[in-house]
Structure formats: structure tokens, C-alpha cells
Amino acid sequence: MQPANSMVPQSMAAPPQQQYQQQPQQHWMAQQQPAAYQVPQQQSAYYYQQQQQQQQQPQYNAAAASAQPTSSDEIRSLWIGDLQFWMDEPYIQNCFAHTGEVASVKVIRNKQSGQSEGYGFVEFISHAAAERNLQTYNGSMMPNSEQPFRLNWASLGSGEKRSDNGPEYTIFVGDLAADVTDYMLQETFRANYPSVKGAKVVTDRVTGRTKGYGFVKFADESEQLHAMTEMNGKFCSTRPMRIGHAANKKSVPGQVQG
DNA sequence: TTTGAGCGG
């Protein structure tokens, strides 16, 4: 006589967050407009973009999805990172479910432990759909978590490179408030420095919380240099930023860096 | 919390 219901594998136990799959409504995915962080001028462009995307609610068309052999050299998969251990395929699927454009989801797991490696792949029905979702969700908050989506083209797998734009110049940004996301950080700089290629707020893998610092990448070296002095002490969200130089984590052998 | 890390089958 063994109580059968006592067998709940710890590693697969329910997330600490609640049962995301039982959410009655699907629009908890509605994108969160960034809070009151300061984006000087280009705010309107950004909001315009967001609204455009909200208006054209894509509809899933199964016929179109399968009937289009298309130029199959197009990437339809996105890489998704910063996943917490409880973020499994159903969860991720749910994140994009209402778009009706997800073809498949895969979380990469450790062969031995079965634990998530913290990243995965989301395949969409088309390149356009993938791009749309990338634009829409990257940087917005993931449901039932305190961290934003981290999405990118799944470029390595297909051997295709996403636009490689040459060298990049990175700065370190510290003193970030807890609510600062990649996107906020990026836009804060991009408003003044158009060559900004991206920004990353470093988060704790376990808790998903920000560590209070991040990095901003520039394509233009002079903009990087200007930003380091001009943006130091400027506010992002509720706190002034502290800017420093970014220590290179990577060094390519045989390549000289200035 | 103050110098990350992110590509499978």
C-alpha cells in the first residue's frame, strides 16, 4: 500500500510562481509598456512601433504555414535565453500562444540532470512571424517572472549569421535600478547615440533578478567614448548610472584589439 | 549584489 501521489519528482516540481498554465486569461502576455524611465526624444517613434504591432494581430493560418515551402533558407527560429529552471516548453509555448505563430518550442536540458540549461529555441511558422515576435517580446517582461524576454535569432544552428556589423564597443553600466530592462537601457542610450547596437542587464541565473549592472554596445567607437562621459550620472529609471569601461570577457586569439 | 555569456537535434 503505497500512496501513489507521493511521487513528485523534485526537479520537475511545480514552479514556485504558481501554475502559469491555469491562467484563465491569455492576455497576461500583453506587453508591458516600459514604466516611467526617461527616454528623451525618440519616445514617440518607439510607441508608434509598438502600436503598429498591436494592431496587426496575426492570425494563425495552418494552410499557409505548411503550404509555403518558401525560400526555406530563411531562419524561423529564435534563440531564447535567461530561462529559469521552471520555464519549460509549455510555459514558453504559452508565452507566444496567442500569436498562433509558434511551430515548436524546445528547452535545452542537461543530459544527466534534466535541468534546463537556461536557454532554448522557439520555431515560428515563418521568418516574418519570428521577426515580429522578436520585435514584440524581446525586452518585455516574461509572464510570472521578474525578468524580460531575451530573444535573438537562432543564427548559429543554421550556419547563418545575423547581420554582423563589424566591431562593437562596449561599456559597463552600474548602479542600475531594479526595474531597468535591456530595452530600457538600450533606448536610454540610443536616444542620444544612434550607433547603439544593444544592451544587456545582467541577471542572476537563479533568481532572475537584476544584478544592478549591465552593458551597452556601440557600433561607433567615438559614440562609446562620448557616452562614457556624457551619460555617466544620467538617470535610467530612478537612479543615476555609473559608467565604466567593459572588461573584455572574450578575446579572440590572433586578433589584436586596440 | 557593480564587469555577462548565449546556440540544439
From TrEMBL:
Biased composition (Low complexity): 9-34
Source superkingdom: Eukaryota
UniProt KW keywords: mRNA processing, Nucleus, Repeat, RNA-binding
InterPro entries reported in the protein's UniProt record: Nucleotide-bd_a/b_plait_sf, RBD_domain_sf, RBM42_RBP45_47-like, RRM_dom
UniProt region (Disordered), positions on chain: 1-34
Functional summary from the UniProt entry: Heterogeneous nuclear ribonucleoprotein (hnRNP)-protein binding the poly(A) tail of mRNA and probably involved in some steps of pre-mRNA maturation.
Protein's UniProt name: RRM domain-containing protein
Phylogenetic lineage: Eukaryota, Viridiplantae, Streptophyta, Embryophyta, Tracheophyta
